[in-house]
Design goal:
- This protein is mostly helical and 551 residues long.
- The chain has 2 domains: 35-341, no CATH class; 412-537, no CATH class.
- 61% of the residues lie in helices and 3% in strands.
- The chain has 25 helices and 4 strands.
- The chain has helices at 2-46, 51-64, 80-92, 96-118, 122-135, 147-150, 152-163, 171-187, 192-202, 209-236, 240-260, 262-268, 279-293, 296-314, 324-335, 341-354, 358-364, 378-390, 394-400, 412-423, 441-445, 457-460, 467-475, 493-496, 514-517, and strands spanning 432-434, 481-485, 525-530, 533-537.
- A 4-stranded mixed beta sheet has the order 1-2-4-3.
- The longest helix is centred in the N-terminal third of the chain and has 45 residues, at 2-46.
């Protein structure tokens, strides 16, 4: 009798304790999330835009002012991201702080939708948000406001819709999913691969062939519908022939370069985000388990992760931003099993204590996986108040940018001085050529149309069959000034920032070889220099063209 009385009460007691611990865990997750976001958001908003963003911004401005994408600003990608920026810029103006806030909101909404796919309780969802907040805002500027993350939004929405409905009478819901996947395709066609994997894994249709057929037909109908709307706009705006030229005459060669990089991708896969890359070691087997024994929601999440991971590894370039989405998806998969943010935050919190051990501290200097999280570094808290006061000023961009000194990065203070000089020249549209990737921002600062449609010249110069056509286009231009970046010629910043020959800033530094001096743009007369940036007055024959990184 005593046993019959005690056991139910003990079960009820343990259930109540578990429930209270769950709420306590969830509440601590809310507190941790608020603390991380308070620390992360002001510096994130003040970080510099990457060259990809400024390229897309210039292209979006061309669309908004009556220009033609691809003809006026060359781009190897589908136009979905540029369309999105054109719409956003019409609403929010030129502010990068606001654009970064929208980027962060997009990532936040993706995480909310993923928490629905996870199908877990409040506590695990909150700690998944904490893990994502510790990850995304602290990555380099190279990874922010990029197509891969933004196209993740319609992809996750489509997967979430699919996971939360039955497959019977599924034509019209499938049309909706197809529209969402079609929107993602306009950002990057690579998302067709995870879309196919998600469909194959979840297309059972209760075993009815008719349901599966209607489901597939609906998906294609939705995709074709949004594709037709896009093609109609491209045709109406006069962009269609230029779009086709890029897709048919340029991109096949670009795609060929992807296969040349294939041997590099596996080793690179553990070097994109330091210790964060290790999450895939747990996420891959968890995803496989979900495919085997999971419910519809679990299987959808697993399929999206595995499909996305495969296309990023096999079909895309060796760039970190490509691998942000599957890292977030991996955190969601792990978050189904444990409050993933707790071990992540715990590891970062104990790192300062481990750094007191001399051997650990020495190893951490050169070991990417042991590098401390920015949240644990004094630098973040030194600049945090300035972020609130100054916003995304040139000085703050130099402080917060992780890749400013890269050959495709930007020194914002030095570039502002170039802009000040060029403002005195009263430039008109087409009179300025920004030769190197880190100088594109000048088109926006000076509000002038590009003098040359090729902005990522290092990318377009890789099309060997097109080099002569690019060179001829350069020779045909009648721009007044061209801005170059000495960083393209050397990785040694001491040499890059050295004065010109004889200590004169209106001459090229002595270390630049004669072979480069004879090539454009270095063969044009120098009229101004600000550190790494050189302003040339165009007037001499263009001659040979130098557009690749050479030491």
């Amino acid at each position: 009798m005593a046993t019959q009385y005690l056991l139910p009460n003990m079960r009820e007691f343990f259930f109540e304790c578990r429930k209270r611990l769950g709420w306590l865990c969830g509440l601590s997750g809310v507190c941790a999330l608020i603390a991380v976001l308070v620390a992360a958001v002001p510096p994130f908003l003040a970080m510099p835009p990457w060259g990809d963003v400024t390229l897309y911004d210039v292209a979006a401005r061309e669309i908004r002012t009556g220009g033609v994408h691809y003809r006026d600003v060359f781009d190897t990608n589908p136009p979905g991201f540029v369309w999105s920026l054109a719409v956003l810029r019409s609403a929010i103006g030129p502010s990068y702080e606001v654009l970064r806030a929208i980027d962060l909101c997009i990532v936040g909404f993706i995480c909310v939708m993923l928490s629905r796919l996870m199908g877990t309780g409040f506590a695990r969802s909150m700690w998944f948000f904490v893990a994502a907040a510790l990850f995304y805002p602290f990555t380099s500027e190279f990874n922010h406001i990029q197509r891969d993350v933004w196209m993740m939004l319609p992809a996750v929405l489509a997967t979430s819709l699919r996971a939360n409905r039955t497959m019977d009478r599924s034509f019209w819901p499938s049309v909706g999913e197809g529209i969402l996947w079609g929107c993602a395709v306009w950002f990057k066609p690579h998302c067709i691969f995870p879309a196919a994997v998600v469909w194959l894994v979840t297309c059972r249709g209760n075993g009815k062939i008719r349901s599966i057929a209607f489901d597939l037909l609906g998906q294609f109908t939705g995709g074709l519908l949004i594709g037709a709307v896009g093609v109609f706009y491209l045709t109406l705006s006069g962009t269609w022939p230029h779009f086709l030229d890029v897709m048919l005459n340029w991109n096949p060669e670009y795609a060929g370069n992807l296969f040349d990089e294939l041997p590099q991708r596996l080793p690179w896969n553990i070097n994109y985000f330091g210790g964060w890359d290790l999450v895939h070691l747990a996420a891959v087997p968890l995803a496989c388990y979900n495919l085997w024994k999971g419910g519809n929601s679990n299987r959808g999440l697993a399929a999206l992760y595995l499909g996305w991971y495969a296309q990023a590894m096999l079909l895309q370039r060796v760039f970190p931003y490509v691998h942000l989405p599957e890292t977030i998806l991996a955190l969601a998969l792990i978050g189904q099993r444990i409050p993933v943010g707790i071990p992540v935050l715990g590891w970062f919190l104990i790192q300062p204590l481990l750094a007191l051990i001399p051997a650990y501290a020495e190893e951490a200097k050169s070991n990417y996986f042991l590098a401390p999280h920015p949240l644990m570094e004094k630098h973040l808290y030194d600049v945090w108040p300035r972020c609130l006061r100054e916003g995304s000023s040139a000085a703050m961009r130099n402080k917060l940018g992780q890749l400013n000194s890269a050959h495709c990065g930007t020194d914002w203070v030095q570039l502002e001085l170039v802009a000040d000089f060029l403002r005195t020249a009263n430039l008109k549209d087409g009179e300025l050529i920004c030769w190197h990737d880190g100088t594109h921002r000048l088109y926006l600062l000076l509000n002038v149309k590009p003098g040359l449609r090729y902005m990522h010249l290092g990318t377009t110069w890789a099309f060997e069959s097109k080099r002569e056509a690019i060179a001829e286009e350069v020779r045909s231009k009648e721009a007044r000034f061209v801005v170059s970046d000495l960083r393209l010629l050397s990785g040694d910043m001491t040499r890059v920032l050295a004065p010109g020959e004889g200590g004169k800033w209106y001459r090229l530094p002595a270390w630049i070889p004669e072979s480069q001096r004879k090539c454009f743009p270095w063969n044009q007369r120098i009229v101004f220099r600000s550190g790494r940036y050189v302003v040339h007055e165009m007037g001499r024959p263009v001659g040979c063209i130098q557009a690749s990184l050479e030491e």
